[in-house]
Design brief:
Chain A: It comes from Myripristis murdjan (pinecone soldierfish). The complex is a heterodimer of chains A (about 260) and B (about 250). Chain A is an alpha+beta fold. Helix content of chain A is about 45%, strand content about 15%. In chain A, strands 1-3-2 form a three-stranded antiparallel sheet. Chain A has a three-stranded antiparallel sheet with strand order 4-8-7. Chain A has a two-stranded antiparallel ribbon with strand order 5-6. The chains are: A alpha+beta (about 260), B alpha+beta (about 250).
Chain lengths: ~260, ~250
């Protein structure tokens, strides 16, 4: 049963009880993968791929990034020797069936997220419950982008207050606004909330998170700004240049490119 | 060999994943929106075909977009369902073990009732006898509101019923686990909870409220389709949406 295998939170594993799990995972070689595939039926590989897809979807529902270590321990398990093949098929399934892209955002710790390949459109007849939060996020991302990529948290709080979204009060739609912005959006990798050293009292600054870099169009932000201020987006020359430069080489590559 | 998926199908699927369940009117509007967005031809009478393409590609992942009828309004609904589960553990990522146990007990009570519903009082009482960790009254109430919000249960005036999404998704589970208690609607032959019942003690057939409305529409003297006894219940009106007259 697919979901019952994801028994992560419930059982405590003691050291040495499950021998395989404590061995750190190393990527198998191409020949090892080949050998591994020969020992399995196509149905077995398909089944395991389906389980990995389900696991990602479950995590992605809450926009929680997936760590390779957890994926191998809880889902892939004894199929770890064909891990690259499973990931290749998983990425392909996400692209072809769901219109999502599997992206590695942390090469050191091997952390993945799913981003949308399809553009978010206005006027969708079926509105999902997360839309108001995305609106709020968009405002914050706009402020950060227009100010050059990093802003002091006070600027974000003041901007929100002007929109009657007060981080100090419980908001009707968003609840605990401060928690939404500094915790939820950060965990989802939409924002980064970084301490500014040597500040007394302690201050933070906000930057775009990796998911925002991959999912949110800077051109769209400029267009929104243009409408808001009745200006041509190109009049913000610095920001326009940044928005129209194709992604730099530091952009994370997709796992399917390996 | 199933037809390939296009971006219009993917966009539809993404919307389904966000909502979980939509009614037919929303499905038609979404179909049109998705086709327009990607300059794909939209044939309004081919909605089910469009959805079948998506379902055929979801099948290897044990998922499906399944069609069913709401017991409340009699309208068709489309739900994205997980077929890998044969138990309520499909909900296990969102609910604790004792919460799932309470949900199972609620289902037991609903399946055992004549009306297809259970009062909040009865659910609270059953929370006292959980085999896993006990739930306090406030915790039970909070759990019930979460179950309603996640669209597993409906609540009206303190009475809880299974939601359309729950019935569509769990039908195979219900048919297996409750095979002795589960009843089928005499008209549409799907599982039935909220219904009218023939008062003849040797008959006792059940009919969904919307199926009653459709079957007995316009009849001066309603009679039970199985035993021909007079049908004593008030016949509801057939619910019609404005767009249904446009074909």
């Amino acid at each position: 049963m697919v979901v019952m295998l994801f028994d992560e939170g419930r059982s405590e594993t003691l050291m040495g009880e499950e021998e395989d799990d404590d061995i750190p995972f190393t990527q198998p070689s191409t020949s090892q993968v080949q050998k591994g595939l020969e020992k399995l039926t196509p149905a077995q590989v398909d089944q395991k791929t389906a389980e990995v897809v389900q696991y990602f979807l479950m995590k992605d529902q809450k926009k929680i990034p997936v760590r390779r270590a957890d994926l191998v321990k809880h889902v892939v398990k004894e199929y770890r020797n064909i891990y690259p093949e499973i990931m290749k098929r998983t990425a392909r399934t996400f692209e072809q069936v769901f219109g999502l892209k599997l992206v590695e955002i942390d090469f050191k710790n091997h952390v993945y997220i799913l981003i949308n390949k399809l553009e978010t459109l206005e006027g969708a007849p079926v509105r999902s419950p997360s839309n108001p939060k995305m609106g709020l996020l968009f405002v914050i991302l706009s402020v950060i982008f227009m100010k050059g990529g990093a802003v002091k948290e006070t600027l974000v709080w003041n901007t929100l207050k002007k929109l009657r979204v007060d981080p100090g009060e419980k908001h009707e739609e968003f609840g605990d606004v401060k928690r939404l912005v500094t915790d939820e959006f950060v965990r989802q990798r939409y924002l980064e909330y970084v301490r500014i050293p040597h500040t007394e009292p302690l201050e933070h600054e906000f930057r775009w998170g990796q998911r925002a870099e991959l999912e949110v169009s800077k051109i769209k932000i400029l267009e929104f700004m243009g409408e808001l201020h009745d200006r041509d987006p190109q009049s913000w020359s610095q920001q326009y240049k940044e928005a129209t430069t194709p992604s730099s080489s530091s952009q994370p590559s997709t796992s399917s490119q390996r | 060999m199933s037809r390939p998926m296009g971006d219009s199908h993917r966009r539809f699927l993404q919307a389904m994943m966000a909502k979980g369940i939509i009614n037919e009117q929303e499905a038609r509007a979404l179909h049109r929106h998705c086709c327009d967005a990607h300059n794909a031809h939209c044939a309004p009478d081919r909605l089910d075909e469009f959805i079948d393409v998506i379902s055929s590609h979801l099948q290897p992942m044990f998922m499906q977009i399944r069609k069913g009828m709401s017991e409340e309004d009699g309208l068709p609904y489309y739900a994205l369902v997980n077929m890998a589960e044969t138990d309520v553990t499909r909900m296990s990522s969102d609910y604790a073990d004792n919460e799932l146990e309470l949900f199972r007990k609620t289902m037991d009570l609903i399946l055992g009732s004549e009306t297809g519903s259970v009062s909040s009082t009865d659910i609270l009482n059953s929370a006292d006898s959980l085999q896993t960790k006990k739930l306090k009254k406030s915790e039970t109430e909070h759990l019930l509101s979460r179950l309603v919000m996640d669209k597993w249960l409906n609540e009206k005036r303190g009475e809880y019923t299974l939601s359309t999404r729950c019935i569509i998704e769990m039908e195979p589970y219900i048919r297996t686990m409750y095979q002795d208690q589960v009843k089928l609607c005499h008209i549409c032959h799907n599982i039935v909870f909220q219904c009218q019942i023939c008062e003849n003690p040797t008959c006792g057939i059940k009919i969904h409220n919307p199926c009653v409305a459709r079957y007995f529409k316009g009849r001066a003297e309603p009679r039970c389709p199985a035993c021909d006894d007079f049908w004593p219940h008030e016949i509801p009106e057939v619910r019609r949406l404005q767009s249904q007259s446009r074909r």
